[in-house]
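User: Second chain of the day. Same drill as before.
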Amino acid sequence: MRKHGMPARALCCLAALLLALAALPARAESAEKTGFSAKGVIEGPRPVTLYAPISGRVEDFAWQAGDRAAQDDLALSLLPQLVYAPADGVVSSLRARPGDLCGSVALQYGALCYISRDRLWHIDGQISSSQEDAETRAIAVGQTVKLQHGTVDNKVRGVGTIIGVDQTRFTVELETGGFELDDDVRIYLEDSKDYGRDDQIGSGKIRRPAQLPVSGEGMVADVLVQEGERVSRGQPLFMLDDASARYAQDARVSPELRFPLSGVIAEVQVRGGMYVQQGQALMSLMPEGGLEAALEVDELDIARVRVGDSVRVTVDAYSGERTGTVKEIQPLGRVVLDTTKFIVKLSFEKTDDLMVGMHVRAYWD
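Assistant: Same format as last time:
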């Protein structure tokens, strides 16, 4: 019986197949060593948003998008709600703190604080019952009067103004005179020349004026004075905000908003005269420097990219190459035409000639 051997042609095919399989590891190794590239664009750093530190009206300002600002430049100022000192005096019983509701403080203590007018005297006066003259009894708020204390040999005289009238009682605020607390004082018409009895309006006793309560509405944003501090009439005492605002008890709020770093203004969202609330976005700033390349790396190549890699980079706008360093590999890819791309960020030592939006290509050798 004839034995059939493998045809020569089949043997040749088998040999070729074995040779091809033997060459696969070498080809794979060669492919791993083959470089790749990725396209991208130059991006700026993330914009910094400036928020209103307190509610208030925006004062006029000149900044526009595209303007270059330096760190600590004044971005804008707000006109917040302020509570002012009603008179000269000393701050006393200061109970309000940042974060307190004005109504709650007033409910517990009667006021946010009080102003003690320690350099001012009042006289609680009473119209003399013996005076029947219409001129000496018809006194009015704002009327100037003369004052006298003491005996014939030791008289102290002064001038005051009537600041309150209630039927037969009235209050005088001293303008001049070296009186002391609890002195008994006789009160005369302003045009009295000899301090005669016919010109006497009444009499009273020197006393300290009542403390003036200081009140407000809303939330205490900042306390601008301290207990025992001497203040002048019209001096700001408290900065207030809407009741819905939030402030820490150790907060120090400034109505002036300054740029936290240098850069280019990307967007201005308010204008002078607008009322803004605490936390409202006012403008955004693109920080100076810090330009970087954002590359789209194919999913077949991303496993070969490492943070810290040094790569060659070309910029379409310029000739030549520069070096970039991988600073970030974003793990969340996005699908582009049935393939997944991953964003890889490159940094550069110098970015003076780069601009946002320029196209680049990076090469991994």
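DSSP finds three helices and 28 strands in the chain.

User: Great, on to the next one.
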